Amino acid sequence: MRVLDHSTLAQVAAGADVGFHLLDLVERYNLPVLIPAAALEQVARDAFADPDAVTLLGRIDATLGFSQVTVDAMDEHRALQVAEAGSRIGQSPGLVSYAHAAVCAREHDCVVITADGAVWKDLAPDVVTVELTD
Question: What's the predicted TM-score (pTM) here?
Answer without folding.
Answer: 0.85
